[in-house]
Amino acid sequence: MRKTADCRDFPSETKCTLTISGEEEEVVSAASEHAVSVHGHTDSLDLRKMVRDSLKDVIPEHA
Known about the structure:
Mean pLDDT: 93
Radius of gyration: 12 Å
Order of helices and strands: EEHHE
InterPro entries: DUF1059
Number of helices: 2
Number of strands: 3
Low-confidence stretches: none
Protein name: DUF1059 domain-containing protein
Pfam family, one: DUF1059
Largest sheet: 3 strands, antiparallel
Structural class: alpha+beta
Number of domains: 1
């Protein structure tokens, strides 16, 4: 199942609105890289766990 990470779920001074969707490992990696490069976090196991714990399932749209 596809997952999504949404910056709007976390308080930030920049009011970031980025949303990342994809397979779980892709989203954890991309969201962690974003958190480091844009929000100044340090890449760590704790950061990746926080990202993983915040993921939401993407509900498929039916055509």
